[in-house]
Design goal:
This protein is mainly β. 2% of the residues lie in helices and 53% in strands. It is built from 1 helix and 32 strands.
Length: 356
């Protein structure tokens, strides 16, 4: 979930860590098209405003329009998937928007599924699975959906529990966990994971009274918990590894890549580390000047001080670097390109791989 201020998302609580394609749209989208994100490998999603009405448009890499269709409400948030030509476009009552609570699942074929009374949504994985949260009669119902748009699991929780906490859902849509959004907020003495049919099974994790902060689902139904500045990973109820950073680097915030195979760790000293699902650190960057770190496919992207740097997750080495300005935003990566939009004009620049 990203927060992109588009004059034209990383979860809201992650400030400078950007891990998925969730975006908060501008309240004032310009009349021209604004390219928002890549879809799958080769397509792009744009939002267009015509007077007081809105449209979404999907184009291919040659800028040929695959579809252009109306949206019956003002879009406020969207998220695109890395491995499939599909996006989620919502109209929510969040981040200053007074949305209608609608969600559209769109593809080059049009709107393939719609939802009403939606309070929030997010991806489960990079191949099309997602969850929605709907509010009704003082309860919040969390439902998960598979890549073929079939419901997987659903359970109602108190609205207070959902509102006060961060939710992390496994990539198969069958497990979820609530935890504190950041160390600046109250910690817990225990963390409960909900799993099984309609999340009816509960597993509680306790560390002898130690403060527990964020908990995120990653890998194949594994769970990582921030325990007093170190990360402990569980498979079921068995601890499988511990990530305990070097001195002067304590775990502060945690996020996952959309495919749930990588974890981004922000330390209290300002550094950011990228680790894989086995707990191995791939690389670390200085985040004191506001670096953004994101993962897309086989690459990680680090943007800082006007530079966008692409790293191979297989080698941990930089494979491409391009310069960007204050009005530019990187919206996607491919094997040979970094895709950059200019937020003033909505234009797309394709930076060829040239710097090793």
């Amino acid at each position: 979930m990203n927060y992109l201020k588009l004059g034209l998302i990383s979860l809201a609580f992650l400030s400078s860590i950007s891990m998925a394609d969730r975006q908060v749209l501008s309240h004032n989208i310009e009349p021209n098209e604004q390219i928002m994100s890549t879809m799958g490998e080769d397509n792009f999603l744009a939002i267009k405003k015509n007077n007081s009405s809105y449209q979404f448009k999907i184009t291919n890499s040659s800028n040929d329009a695959l579809i252009q269709a109306p949206l019956p409400w003002q879009p406020s948030h969207l998220e695109s998937f890395n491995d499939i030509d599909r996006s989620l476009i919502g109209s929510l009552k969040k981040n200053g928007f007074n949305g209608d609570g609608n969600l559209a699942v769109v593809s080059p074929g049009g709107i393939v599924k719609s939802f009403e009374n939606v309070n929030d949504f997010g991806s489960l994985n990079s191949s099309g699975g997602f969850f929605i949260i709907s509010n009704q009669a003082g309860e919040s119902t969390l439902s998960t959906y598979s890549e073929n748009l079939k419901k997987i699991s659903s359970r109602s929780f108190s609205s207070g529990l959902v509102k006060r906490n961060m939710v992390s859902v496994s990539k198969d849509g069958k497990e979820l966990v609530f935890s504190s959004p950041s160390p600046d907020m109250s910690h817990r003495k225990s963390i409960t994971k909900y799993s099984g049919h309609d999340f009816s099974k509960e597993i509680k994790y306790v560390f002898g009274g130690a403060p527990l902060y964020q908990a995120v689902s990653f890998g194949d139904n594994e769970l990582a918990i921030n325990v007093s500045g170190k990360l402990v990973a569980f498979r079921g109820q068995t601890a499988v590894w511990t990530y305990e950073p070097k001195p002067y680097f304590s775990v502060n915030l945690v996020a996952t890549s959309q495919d749930k195979n990588y974890l981004v760790i922000k330390g209290d000293s300002g550094e950011v580390a990228l680790i894989n699902s086995e707990g191995n650190e791939l690389f670390r960057v200085d985040n004191r000047n506001g670096s953004e770190v994101s993962v897309k496919g086989k690459f990680a992207l680090v943007t800082n001080n006007g530079l966008a740097k692409k790293f191979s997750l297989e080698t941990g080495k930089k494979v491409q670097e391009v310069r960007i300005n204050d009005t530019s935003k990187v919206i996607g990566l491919s094997q040979n390109n970094i895709y950059v939009t200019d937020k003033r004009y909505g234009g797309l620049n394709k930076a060829q791989e040239k710097d090793k």
